[in-house]
Q: What sequence folds into this?
């Protein structure tokens, strides 16, 4: 679990990342006081994950 606040607007965020290696599963959970940072976080996570898979 990770808790933090965004730098610009101070939105509170909670994140959890879980790996179940035996099942080949990666679980990512994010919650916030507003949807704006969730949208940005998931978009950035997708870009980073896509780049890691391509490399």
A:
């Amino acid at each position: 679990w990770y808790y933090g606040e965004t730098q610009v607007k101070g939105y509170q965020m909670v994140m959890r990342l879980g790996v179940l290696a035996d099942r080949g599963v990666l679980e990512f959970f994010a919650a916030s006081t507003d949807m704006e940072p969730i949208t940005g976080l998931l978009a950035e996570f997708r870009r980073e994950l896509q780049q890691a898979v391509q490399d």
